Every structure is written in structure tokens, then in C-alpha cells.
Amino acid sequence: MTRYLITSALPYINGVKHLGNLVGSMLPADAYARFQRARGNDVLFICATDEHGTPAELAAHESGLPVDEYCARMHAIQKDLGSRFGLSFDHFGRSHSPQNHEITQHFYHQLDQNGLLEERTTTQVYSIDDKRFLPDRYVVGTCPHCGYERARGDQCENCTRVLDPADLINPRSAVSGSTNIELRDSKHLFLRQSEMVGRLREWIDAKTNWPLLVTSIARKWLDEGLKDRSITRDLTWGIPVAYQGKVRPGFEGKVFYVWFDAPIEYVGATMEWSAATKNDWKRWWREDEGAGDVRYIQFMGKDNVPFHTVGFPVTLFGSKEPWKVVDHIKGLNWMNYYGGKFSTSGNRGIFMDQALELLPADYWRWYLLANAPESDDSNFTWEHFQATVNHELADVLGNFVNRIAKFCTARLGGVVPVGGEYGALEAETTGALEKRLATLTAQMEAMEFRKSAIELRSMWVIGNEYLQKAEPWMKIKSDPVAAGVSIRYALNLAMVFAALAQPFIPHASRAIAQAIGGKTGSLRWPARIGDSLEPGARIAVPDVLFAKIEPEQLAAWIERFGGADRKNG
Ligand SMILES: [Zn+2]
User: Which helix (H) or strand (E) holds 232?
Assistant: First the structure.
């Protein structure tokens, strides 16, 4: 038994996540966690909401709530949606938790003790009317290069040039629109990342089996020369720059930068889990406390890769304590919506709550994982979604299970048929399925979800082909024993399919296993294709597993969410 620590990148707190976010880290992480549990391994699957930073503050302000209350509410909403999507987190925490305060301040103290922090004074925009410092992107004005009037202080969206707020003509606050702003000096803590380049390069160079997407992003950052970065901000919402209750002198009213404390919340959330369940979090995180045999895997979208290959490792290595560092990073590309970006701020695409209003979670889970943006970006269209659901889930898996269960109930007394022996056709089918099973297991182990979905679907097709050849519906009259044999074989295959599909479509898998396997129906990952059902045991017909998406539904959804016309939107 191996111990797997699995984390998904933390969804940001400001709103319900869209399906692009879901398939970009949380869903593939869940499929892998479910696979490893089904293999009998010890899994700890951790995620949390990322709650600090200016966007959270401003979103709270817009909704008229105090920021802590806003975050508590949004956390509850995201947690509920995750659970309805079947995301099997052992703990879904909050980066604002007391545990994350404690452990973030611990890392700060260690880095400080080890001489890796330095106080530097920077000049920043202060809004007198808003009574606050403004992050660069919250200063807007006219671009000096192209004349665009809503250029942000960090970059002009129109001509994409990188800017400094001081470059802007007619600068104003994006919070209030006030032009009553000035430059003020402010003291910040800089993490001396430049000291750690050698250590990081050595570490990345040893990761020969990581996806190229991940190592190339990491190397690009190291090659460009890693800059020291400020890990504090002039904000009130966040984790105070303090240790053991004492604020660092001169850092009153400042907090750690959200990108410093967010990855630390992987540890913080494990501490929250530990407090809630009386488990020992150190067994998972401290190599001197038993985490030496843990295999740690992180899932994330490509935009998060720099913070996990450079930022967070600097914190862990810089502490000079024996922390568990990641063993494997599964980085994902983007899933697009009709060739354009899914966007929370642009309200484009399908959001998790809307998706569940339309169809149960498994329809989405299957589509998203079978089209996961792994080797390249992938593309959602409603037409493709309909075709996938109808042809793969309804026609192939759903049809196989419902057909044999109904036939068994109507013609064979609703029990697993007794008597008769498997023959050449069953042996041949088992042989074909075992080849696929070996490939599927290897692909799941390698976190290749698209390829895994192809293997799984091929196995369902083999099951349907078996029924076409065995023809129990014809044989029931001439040779009822033979008909019983093929139904017994097919019912056992349905149990195998349920177990193998469980990482993808857990709700349907459970429905199949319970209807056909009864209370003892197991979803353990099988090593071989074999029988698990007792002949003579009673079975039930599961409710329709997957209904087809009808043309009228498709038309209504395209009307509501936008279709091909959103391509350039
Ligand atoms: Zn411009």
C-alpha cells in the first residue's frame, strides 16, 4: 500500500467556478484520488478556497458584505457545489483558517531566521479618497503607447504592453474612480529567491518524468533569472506579518501576499483536517514525522505552474526543515468555450451551479475528463457535448447495463442465472477486455485521463459486441441455459465496468453496483476480468443511467449560453 497525498490548486473565492476551472485541476485530481483509493491505497485528498487578496476584498465590497462574511458564504457555496459534483476531498479548507495563519507565520519566521527575507522600501500608488494603497492593476488610466483609456497599471489590455502605474496618463483608482491619488513609500518584505536558483534547478533537473508543460515553464522562470519578490502587501484582509502574536515592527496594517499564503494552505488545510478528524497531519507533511514514504501529487492549470515549481518550493526549501515537497505535478492546459476563453469576470461559459441545474454531475464529469486539456487546449461545444453523452454514455454504457438488467428481471426471474459454463466466446471476450484493462490501469496510473476514457469506452463497446454475438434474447427460447450463461457473464461485466468507471462517473457506478451487486457490490479496481456475483443472487434494474440529450434541449441551451457566435466574444 502506497500513501498518496493529492492536492488540487485552490479555487479563488470570488464566485462560483466555471467548468474550465473544474477540469483544470479539481476534477482530474478527484479522478486520480478515486482511482488510488479503489486500488486499495491510502489517499489524502486536500483542497481549499483561496480567500485573500484584493479581488476578494473588492468582490465583498461590491456584494455589500464584510469580507470575512463574504468569504465564509462563498466557501460554503463552493464546498456544496464540489460535493454535488462528487469531488471526494478528504478536506476542503479555507486559506483564512487559523491553521493557515499559524503555519504561514511559521514559514515566515523560518525564512527570516535563515536570512532569506529583506526589508525594502517601494513606491506605490495611494488613493487618498479610498484610504488605501492600490495594487498596480487597480490603477487605471490612458495608455501612453496606444491611447487606450482603460489601461491597467500593470498592463495595457489593448496593446498588451507591460506598464508601470507611473506611466499612465490621467491615472485614477479603479476602486472608486477617484483621481485624488499619489505615490507613497511603503516598506515590504522581499523573499530572496535569487539565492535559491541553484537549489531549484537541481531539483527540477532531477524530475525527468514530469510533463514537458511543467518543466519548460519552470526552466523559463529560472533561465530568465529569478527575481526576489515582495511577499507582503498593504492590505488589511489577509494574514498579518506577525509571529507568535507579535506584529513585525513597521508592518502594522500589512499582510502576506496571497501568493505566499495560498500554497501554504495545502499544509494548513491538512492541519484543519487533522483538527477535525483527530488524525496526524505531520505524517503527511514532515519527513521527520513519517512522511518519508508519501507520494505527493499536485494538480493545476498551467497558469499556476510557476508558483508551484518555484514559489512554493522556495518557501519549503528556504525553511531548512524536512518538509515533504511535491513528487509529481500534473499541469493542464485550458478548456475553451467555442474557441474563446471560459471567463469568470466575463461571465462566459458554463458555471458549476448552472451545469447541475441542467444535468446530473456524471454527464459533465465524463465529458470533461474524456476531453481533458492534457496535451493541448481542448474545446467545449454544446454539439460535441450532446454527441458525447448520447453516443458514449447513453448508447454504449447505459444501454448495456439497462438492457441486461431488464432482460434478467423480465425473463430470468431477476436473479443472477445459475448453471451452464462459459465457452469460447466468453474466453475470447475476457481476453480482449484484459488487454484493455492493463492499458487502462497504466493510463490511470500515468494520470492520462483522455486516453483512459478511450480505453474505458472501448471496453463498453466490447461488452455490447459480446451481447450481439451471444444473442440471449434469441436463445432464451431454444437454449435457456445458454441465454442464462451470457446474462450471468454480462452482469458480471457490468460490475467490472462500474468499478472501472467509478473515477469518472461515481454516481452512475454506485447505482450500477447497488442494483446489480446489491449491498456487497464492490467498486474496488479489479486486477483481472472475473466474476464477482453469486449465482442466484437477486438483482434490480437501475433507473435510467443516462438519458439522451434531445435536439430541443440542445437548442435551448445554445440559446441560453451562446453557441458558435460566442467564438470571438
Ligand atoms: Zn496600450
Answer: strand 232-233
Distance set, CA 201 to CA 132, 206, 312 (Å): 39, 9, 14
Residue owning grid cell 499564503:
261
pLDDT-flagged residues of the chain (< 70): 345, 520, 565-569
Measured in Å, residue 149 CA sits from the centre of ligand 1 at: 8
Q: What is the pLDDT of residue 566?
A: 52
Protein residues placing their CB within 5 Å of the ion ligand 1: 143, 145-146, 148, 156, 158-159
Ligand 1 geometric centre to CA of 337 (Å): 27
Q: Could you tell me if 373 and 333 are in contact, meaning their C-beta atoms sit under 8 angstroms apart?
A: yes
Q: Within 13 Å and on the Cβ side, how many CA atoms surround 228? A: 12
Query: Cα of 161 to ligand 1 centre, how many Å?
Result: 6
CA of 167 to the centre of ligand 1 (A): 11
Q: What is the pLDDT of residue 41?
A: 97
pLDDT for the residue 529: 97
Ligand 1 centroid to Cα of residue 124, in Å, is: 21
Among the listed residues 160, 161, 186, 182, the one whose alpha carbon sits nearest the alpha carbon of residue 173: 182
Which residues pair with residue 247 across a beta bridge? 242
Determine which helix (DSSP H) or strand (DSSP E) holds 296, and give its type and residue range.
strand 294-301
Tell me how far the alpha carbon of residue 162 lies from the centroid of ligand 1, in angstroms: 9
Distance (angstroms) between ligand 1 centre and the Cα of 136 equals 15
User: What is the number of residues in the chain?
Assistant: 569
**Residue 15 main-chain phi, psi, to 5 deg:** 125, 165
Compute, in angstroms, the gap from residue 138 CA to the centroid of ligand 1.
16
**Phi-psi region for residue 185, left (φ > 0), alpha (ψ -120 to 50) or beta?**
beta
pLDDT attached to residue 341: 85
> Can you give the three-state secondary structure of 504-557, one letter per residue?
CCHHHHHHHHHHHHHHHCCCCCCCCCCCCCCCCCECCCCCCCCCCCCHHHHHHH
Q: Order of strands, edge to edge, in the sheet holding 340-341? A: 340-341, 335-337, 378-380
512 alpha carbon – ligand 1 mean position (Å): 57
**8 A C-beta contact, residue 257 and residue 107:** no
Q: Which of 338, 329, 331 is nearest to 378 (CA)?
A: 338
